[in-house]
Amino acid sequence: MSGAPHAESRHASCSCGQLRLIACGDPVRISMCHCLACQRRTGSTFGVQARFPAAQVQLQGRSQVYVRSGDSGGQVSFHFCPDCGATVCYRAASLPDFVGVPVGSFADPSFPPPRVSVYEARRHPWTGIPVDAEHYD
Q1: pLDDT tens-digit profile of 68-122?
Q2: Which domains, ranges and CATH numbers included, belong to the chain?
Q3: What radius of gyration do the chain's Cα atoms show?
Q4: Are 104 and 50 in contact (CB under 8 A)?
Q5: What spatial distance separates the first Cα and last Cα of the chain, rounded to whole Å?
């Protein structure tokens, strides 16, 4: 994860601000995931993440890494702040050239909505999904 910030940079951080991330350019995918692991990770009924090319992402500060197997069996490494515990990014072993960033860590209400919804079989029925999103069980 390296890359120089420029005018179209997006800034993300943990809750205390110690761990920060700069993502340059637009995300290649914004998705919402209803899997049980994302529900546990976020403490919500789903997780929303933006995927960026790894070369366009710069992580700053100290992080701890938690590695888990996803519902599909693949390994995912989550970088979180050792002080406040907030996840700032993750890397899936199956997508080594990309970095996922939880959209909430950008703290930007104008961030574009997700266009993909996955693991909908585990979705809480009252959870809304953007009308034009692609749907996957």
Answers
A1: 987 678 899 999 999 999 999 999 999 999 999 999 999 999 999 999 999 999 9
A2: 9-122 (2.170.150.70)
A3: 14
A4: no
A5: 31
